[in-house]
């Protein structure tokens, strides 16, 4: 009888294993969830959808005839809206992975929902460091930036150039608060001072009062702990106030090439910013960018770091699906974490056990108008932060997945 029970248990285990190692519905569905109509529409939006489609096309079935579908939706920068979309994709529409998700509040909500489900979360635009810390999930892989990286590496780079005294303009939700907290911890831990901080709502159009406070603080560096349209508006109005001309340095923690294009290089000149990707870095990034710019609806626009992250994470996910024969996160995510090598868009890359994708980061300065030789030729490289220094050390994140 014991032998029979053991045999039945083994058979059941094999059946379960076979079921888990299959592609559900015979198609891999990837849902691009982002802001299509709001302040992140240029850095993400339909450009992220095209980047995911490019990854599916380049995957080309993984030499196994695997079918891939790309779907998309607008979370409107609302956690409840994003959560409802993700639940519908999970319970009804057979979506296997969610990618992109700018806005940390939305991303953290999706992360909690998908934990221990069969879906994979490719958080290529969610910047909260909690995704690889106290909220880490076996279903989540985080690409591009996070609050620890942007806060610490940007602060370190600016302090090494003499920026010891800071004032923050911070968007009043998880993203901004996380970046400011990480940067402040670094600044004060390395002999610097934070002279003040102004919090503003998401989607602020008038930064006059905040900028006046920053200007009157006499801080050497004004740190913009926000993103998208908020950063653009702040930089434009800072130029009107003549902040940089008066000797204060303006640094953006989370800004992209599309934002520079939107505000114009004349306004943005001299701005310091940290990026994980720049389209004009090397032959591989230029080749990808030119293909992206030629896509229908892109009208010659170069990809942001977030859009490059959608491409890289989608392709990495699909390659893991091909390797495992499964679109279940329990099989795919561990396979993704085996990767260590060179990513064409992000350089030397490792995917750690906490789900953090580690790659170099770069401090850029926006060129003067006369230094720009062709469209989107906006950045000059100031310094490179190696992959092993750019992100929070694995042992310090407090993620329970780390053995």
Proportion of helical residues: 40-55%
Tell me the β content. Answer: 15-25%
What is the H/E string? HEHEHEHEEHEHEHEHEHHEHHHEEEEEH
How do the strands of the widest beta sheet line up side by side? 7-6-8-9-10-14-15
State the distance separating the first and last CA atoms. Answer: 39 Å
How large is the count of helical segments? Answer: 14
Mean pLDDT across the residues is 92
What is the number of beta strands? 15
Main sheet characteristics: 7 strands, mixed
Shape: globular
Residue ranges: pLDDT <50 for 5 or more in a row?
Answer: 1-20
Judged by helices, strands and strand pairing, the structural class is alpha/beta
Alpha-carbon Rg, integer: 22 Å
Protein name: ABC transporter substrate-binding protein
Keywords: Amino-acid transport, Signal, Transport
Organism: Bradyrhizobium vignae
InterPro entries: BCAA_transport (IPR051010), Leu-bd (IPR028081), Peripla_BP_I (IPR028082)
Task: Characterise this structure.
This is ABC transporter substrate-binding protein. Keywords: Amino-acid transport, Signal, Transport. The strands form 3 sheets. A 7-stranded mixed sheet has the order 7-6-8-9-10-14-15, sandwiched between helices. It has a 5-stranded parallel sheet with strand order 2-1-3-4-5, sandwiched between helices. The protein has a 3-stranded antiparallel sheet with strand order 11-12-13. It has 14 helices and 15 strands. A hairpin with a 5-residue loop joins β12 and β13 (357-358). The relative contact order is 0.14. It is globular and about 60 Å long. It starts with a helix and ends in a 13-residue tail after the last helix. Residues 1-20 have low confidence and may be disordered. With 403 residues, the protein is of the alpha/beta class.
């Amino acid at each position: 009888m014991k032998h029979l029970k053991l045999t039945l248990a083994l058979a059941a285990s094999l059946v379960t294993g076979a079921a888990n190692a299959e592609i559900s519905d015979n198609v891999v569905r990837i849902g691009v969830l982002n802001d299509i109509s709001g302040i992140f529409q240029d850095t993400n939006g339909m450009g992220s959808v095209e980047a995911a489609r490019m990854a599916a096309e380049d995957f080309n079935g993984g030499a196994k005839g695997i079918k891939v579908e790309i779907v998309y939706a607008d979370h409107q920068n609302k956690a409840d809206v994003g959560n409802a979309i993700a639940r519908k994709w999970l319970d009804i529409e057979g979506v296997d992975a969610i990618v992109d998700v700018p806005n940390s509040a939305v991303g953290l909500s999706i992360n909690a929902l998908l934990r221990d489900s069969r879906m994979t979360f490719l958080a290529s635009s969610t910047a909260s460091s909690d995704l690889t810390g106290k909220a880490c999930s076996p279903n989540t892989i985080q690409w591009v930036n996070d609050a620890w990286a942007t806060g610490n590496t940007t602060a370190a780079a600016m302090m090494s150039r003499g920026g010891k005294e800071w004032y923050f303009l911070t968007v009043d939700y998880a993203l901004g608060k996380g970046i400011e907290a990480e940067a402040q911890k670094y600044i004060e831990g390395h002999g610097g001072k934070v002279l003040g901080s102004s919090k503003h709502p998401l989607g602020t159009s008038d930064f006059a009062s905040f900028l006046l406070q920053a200007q009157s603080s006499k801080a050497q560096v004004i740190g913009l702990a926000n993103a998208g349209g908020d950063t653009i508006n702040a930089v434009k109005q800072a130029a009107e106030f003549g902040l940089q001309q008066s000797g204060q340095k303006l640094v953006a923690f989370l800004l992209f090439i599309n934002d520079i294009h939107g505000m114009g290089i004349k306004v943005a000149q001299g701005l310091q910013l940290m990026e994980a990707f720049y389209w004009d870095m090397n032959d591989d990034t230029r080749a990808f960018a030119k293909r992206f710019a030629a896509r229908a609806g892109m009208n010659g626009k170069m990809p942001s770091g977030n859009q490059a992250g959608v491409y890289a994470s989608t392709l990495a996910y699909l390659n893991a699906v091909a390797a495992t024969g499964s679109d279940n996160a329990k099989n795919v995510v561990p396979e993704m974490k085996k990767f260590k090598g060179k990513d064409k868009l992000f350089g030397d890359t490792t995917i750690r056990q906490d789900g953090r994708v580690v790659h170099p980061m770069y401090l850029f300065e926006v060129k003067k108008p006369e230094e720009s030789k062709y469209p989107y030729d906006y950045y000059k490289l100031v310094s490179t932060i190696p992959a092993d220094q750019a992100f929070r050390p694995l042992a310090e994140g407090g993620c329970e997945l780390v053995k």
